Amino acid sequence: MRKWKIIEEQIFKVISFLAAYSVIAILLFLLFVVFNKGVGALSWDTISKLPKGGYYFGGEGGILNAIIGSFYLSVGATVLAVFIGLPAALFINVQLIRMKRVQNTIRYLLDALWGIPSIVYGAFGFAVMLFFGLNASLLAGIITVALLITPILVRAFDEVLKTIPVELQEASFSLGSTRTETALKVLFKQGFAGFITALLLAFGRGIGDAASVLFTAGYTDNIPITLDEPVATLPLAIFFQLSSPIEEVRQRAYAAAVVLTIFILVISVSARLLSKRYSKNIIK
Questions:
Q1: Average pLDDT value for residue range 46-69
Q2: Rounded to whole angstroms, how far apart are CA atoms 101 and 96?
Q3: What secondary structure, in 3-state letters, does the chain show?
Q4: Average pLDDT rounded to a whole number, residues 240-260
């Protein structure tokens, strides 16, 4: 009997080993393919110039419009999602602390919203645009992406707040603090490191999504100056340019993929470092 348990344990270790390193291998292979195809097309002109002759047929120019557009869109959507999501997460864990059924219902609905495909958010944003007579623009893209990432931000920060002991809230109340003061000065401070991680998760989903902005943000070779102008993003640049019959345009798409990957990696590392730094400060 003991022999079979040892064999079972060894089989489980092998399966776990293969599963873990398969994920790493897939990630490394993905990075290899993207960088192998895109680094050769990446140059200063590519990241500092606008496309010439059209993003689909123009072989000259770069992807500066998509880089700046992605920054505008993702930052605007994340800021809007924070203004909605942060108070919502604090409300769930402070005002509804004694209402477990209500909390669970809200969390279930947020999970359902999280699981909705991004193309559905894009269709919803497009329907809202038609209803209000709006054009595909930076503003429409920001609103659509904000709707997409708000459930992610709320649930991620909610999971962080759930790990904070209830005794901290009770101690704050016993000292005469209001629920608002407890939420902002106790819970938010204790969960700030986790909030950065939640912010990263939402930001990464927003900047890398193409389906939600396909019908709402439009596409342009220029950099938008106002909120009612269309905007290009790196995911859309990859989507449109990879289908071009011109080789130079397809190479520019791979260059955009490299820029987007580097952008995400830098943000991920920076957020992790900041998270560790603030965690140490909170512990001290």
A1: 77
A2: 9
A3: CHHHHHHHHHHHHHHHHHHHHHHHHHHHHHHHHHHHHHHHHCCHHHHHCCCECCCCCCCECCCHHHHHHHHHHHHHHHHHHHHHHHHHHHHHHHCCCCCHHHHHHHHHHHHHHHHCCHHHHHHHHHHHHHHHCCCCCHHHHHHHHHHHHHHHHHHHHHHHHHCCCHHHHHHHHHCCCCHHHHHHHHHHHHCHHHHHHHHHHHHHHHHCCCHHHCCCCCCCCCCCCCCCCCCCCHHHHHHHHHCCCCHHHHHHHHHHHHHHHHHHHHHHHHHHHHHHHHHHHHHC
A4: 84
Residues 98-148 pLDDT 10s: 778 888 888 888 888 888 888 888 888 888 888 888 788 888 899 999 999
Report pTM: 0.83
**Does 4 score more than 60 pLDDT?**
yes
pLDDT in tens, 164-205: 777 777 777 676 677 777 777 777 777 777 788 778 878 888
Sign of CA dihedral 166, 171, 174, 179: negative
What phi and psi, each to the nearest 5 degrees, are found at residue 60? -105, 170
Separation CA 198–CA 154 (nearest Å): 8
Q: Shortest CA distance to 206 belongs to which of 70, 65, 27, 68? A: 70
Distance CA 212, CA 115 (A): 14
The single residue listed with the structure tokens 């997460």 is: 89
